[in-house]
Amino acid sequence: MTDRYDVVIAGAGPAGAQCARDLATRGYDVVVLETESEDEFPRQSNKSTAGTFPSMMASFGIPDDVVMQYTDSVVLESPTDHYVKDQPGAVLEFADFKRYLAEDGQDAGAEYYFESRATAPIMEGGEIVGMTYNGDQEVYGDVMIDATGPAAPIAKKLGVSDLKRENHAIGIEYEFEGIDIDRPGFADLHDAMMLRLDHDIAPGGYSWIFHTGEDTAKVGLCYIQNNGHDRYARDGFAIDDYLDHWLDTDPRFQNATRIEGKQHRGSAHIQMPGKMHTDRFMAIGDTVPTVDPLWGEGINKCMQSGRMAAAAVDSCLKHGDIEPSAENLEVYDTLWHREVAPNMQKRLWMTKLLYLAENERYDEFMQNLRQLDDDTLAKANRGNVRAIANLFSPGDIPLLARFVKQEFGFGVGL
């Protein structure tokens, strides 16, 4: 076992494992530090959903055997209405998916140090040259990458990726059987991924039902700990309480039972990204905040981030004469903003506006969507200003004024 590599990656989630896959395929010596043991990996999920679209499956060569269910549509629900959009998708068995990424990377030549928790950067001359793990173990490399998600021990100690607690999103999900998938009065959720906007269930966030076959589904919710949540939250309610409330009050769950061992919790940050790199270092995946206002797609964002980081490494190391300095790794930031999260600021504003709206507005939203062009949602999700504007009406002026006051600290005369 050597202690020096071209690239050292902390974290074997979708971002870290994909980055390792790409680098190993290009012939680099890469090692991944993973907290969990090899026998149990992955013991737990740090993603509370695992829905994705065909573009992700094709772009990264993901095999069918990690898919629990292919879906035909996306359903948006409000408290009393719903909207159905034809949209092929895939609900992943997240453990199998993570295991595939790790094994495929190992087959390409990447090494994995399991039971190895990255703890701190090793510095020489003001630059990171390695990482400590498990307290006193050391590993060295030309480039270091933190893919540990919101924990971000290396990034935080280097002053990279400024994660703010007030923008912290938390999620919980269980898998159930016995769900009434086609309940009268609700949308038919066979072969569908459903996202529900309802502050009684997820104040300042959304909940979901992802069909996984027959009468089984992934059921969960998440919310952002920000002003939207503060406005609509119930006193004394934690995230588990909201999920229990939904299970107790939605007739689709009347005969549902939890599948043992199928519980997932996750977290991310919903904010503009801070600094993403410095000399010999990059932060990727959920260590860097990203957002899709409507669909989430966090897995795809993490995978893309890992791929952009691998391209940045390759641009420096492939000729052996370009130092991976902050200046030369700047290409990572450029690729990230172009490929991973274009129009990030506009998408973030849309996300905040969406979760500030009241339940009654969500019901109107479903009616509005039935009158709009099918591409409007996709364009709005990508930050297209005209498409975003088409989602609002003159009645939204008070909502927009409240948003402006919250975001910019001044009021708007009405």
TrEMBL record:
A GO molecular-function descriptor: FAD binding
SUPFAM superfamilies: FAD/NAD(P)-binding domain
InterPro entries, per the entry: Dggglyphlred_Halo, FAD-bd, FAD/NAD-bd_sf, Geranylgeranyl_reductase
Transmembrane segments: none
Domain FAD-binding, residue spans: 5-309
PANTHER family with a match to the protein in the record: DIGERANYLGERANYLGLYCEROPHOSPHOLIPID REDUCTASE (PTHR42685:SF18), GERANYLGERANYL DIPHOSPHATE REDUCTASE (PTHR42685)
Protein name (record): FAD dependent oxidoreductase
UniProt source species: Natrialba hulunbeirensis JCM 10989
